[in-house]
Amino acid sequence: MNLAIDRRTALGWAAAFSLSGLAGRAMAQASEGPEVLIQRVAAELIEAVKSDPALRNGDQARVIALVDNRLLPHVNFMRMTASAVGRFWRQATPEQKQKLQAEFKTLLVRTYSGALSQVKDQTLVVKPLRANPGDTEVIVRSELRSPGKDPVQLDYRVEKTDAGWKVYDLNVLGVWLVETYRGQFAQEINAKGLDGLIAALAQRNRGNVTEKPPVGSKG
């Protein structure tokens, strides 16, 4: 099993799943369970990716537009960014927080847009949710299955809000995205401060080479 390729495929699936289906029907989504939402949208994924050549080719302008219009309303991006920055978030000014969110979003889009082209004939199988009825934070566990390949673990951390369930972290092959970036960001902040992290992210985002998905903490 080629873990590097399959991880990129899973990341592409995760991004494309979020970009293609988590939009509209806000009232219905607010009452849906998190695993029901993910399973329903998964059925719409492959056709959406197949019908969008720009998305399949990793067109960043297209991906950014889809993120802004369809993904962000269903992601607690402030929590995601704050968790990645860690304890330093409390020290950040409102302007720094705004810049960190903007640069982190751009970094994630750049990192995973190239993986979208890997989404082809996969199937997402959502496992039964293990949670109590009153839980407001749960992990939706799933497997990405491809013909002739071992399944790939793909899990979402989601929280219940007044606007419905929102994603705040993603696990691919045992690697939690936020935890991975937290370690990277802490090194940069300890060396150069919050402004140094913002500058480093901006520099990476201005680069011409698509970022590679990080390798980091497992859980």
UniProtKB/TrEMBL annotation:
Keywords for this protein: Signal
Record's signal peptide: 1-28
UniProt KW Signal keyword: yes
Pfam short name (any one): MlaC
UniProt cross-references to InterPro entries, sorted A to Z: MlaC/ttg2D, TAT_signal
Name of this protein: Toluene tolerance protein
